[in-house]
């Protein structure tokens, strides 16, 4: 009789552990199904996000293409001092701001603002009374120095340039005069 009770108890435990194992497998299967559904939803969302990003990139590209209709975005700076590189660029509808300088020496820089909107251009600066008339290439310009920066304003046929520089007068004029 004792053996039957022990055997019955052992069988009960074996069946109980078996049922628990089956129950865990069922939960794992349900969890894996849920994970698969979540992964599928995530993939669907990712593909939707990608298509939205593609559409946004196309829209951004179209906007940039429209923005580049102005000659100010095509101006090239061919005569920068040695080791100068573009540090900052900000393109707006009718104003382009570019800062050139040395990465090793941030005190040496020139910031150029180019605009084809005369009203907006006039808001960028105020020419002092003691500004010097200078020749910048074939155009006339105004140059002044406030002790910290050198400033140069040149109005060209299609656009105007305002430069603020830590370079000396001749270098500042040279950079702006060679901008085409």
Major sheet attributes: 7 strands, antiparallel
What is the CA-CA span between the terminal residues?
Answer: 108 Å
**How much of the residues is beta strand, in percent?**
25-35%
Helix content: 40-55%
Report the order of strands and helices: HEEEHEEEEH
Low-confidence stretches: none
- Report mean pLDDT, rounded to a whole number: 79
Please give the count of helices.
Answer: 3
Strand order of the largest sheet: 1-2-3-7-6-5-4
Task: Please give the radius of gyration in angstroms.
Answer: 35 Å
Could you tell me the number of beta strands?
7
Structural class: alpha+beta
Topology summary:
Layout: H1 2-67, E1 85-92, E2 95-101, E3 109-115, H2 118-122, E4 132-136, E5 139-145, E6 150-155, E7 160-165, H3 169-177
Antiparallel strand pairs: 1-2, 2-3, 3-7, 4-5, 5-6, 6-7
């Amino acid at each position: 009789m004792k053996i039957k009770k022990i055997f019955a108890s052992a069988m009960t435990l074996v069946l109980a552990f078996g049922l628990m194992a089956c129950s865990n497998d069922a939960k794992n299967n349900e969890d894996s199904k849920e994970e698969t559904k979540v992964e599928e939803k995530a993939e669907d969302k990712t593909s939707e996000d990608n298509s939205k990003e593609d559409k946004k990139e196309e829209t951004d590209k179209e906007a940039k293409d429209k923005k580049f209709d102005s000659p100010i975005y095509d101006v090239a700076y061919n005569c920068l001092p040695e080791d100068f590189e573009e540090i900052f660029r900000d393109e707006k509808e009718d104003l382009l701001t570019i800062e050139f300088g040395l990465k090793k020496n941030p005190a040496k820089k020139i910031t150029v603002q180019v605009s084809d909107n005369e009203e907006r251009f006039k808001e960028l600066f105020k020419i002092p009374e003691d500004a010097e008339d200078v020749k910048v290439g074939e155009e006339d310009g105004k140059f002044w120095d406030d002790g910290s920066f050198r400033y140069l304003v040149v109005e060209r046929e299609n656009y105007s340039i305002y430069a603020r520089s830590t370079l000396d007068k001749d270098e500042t004029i040279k950079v702006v005069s060679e901008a085409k």
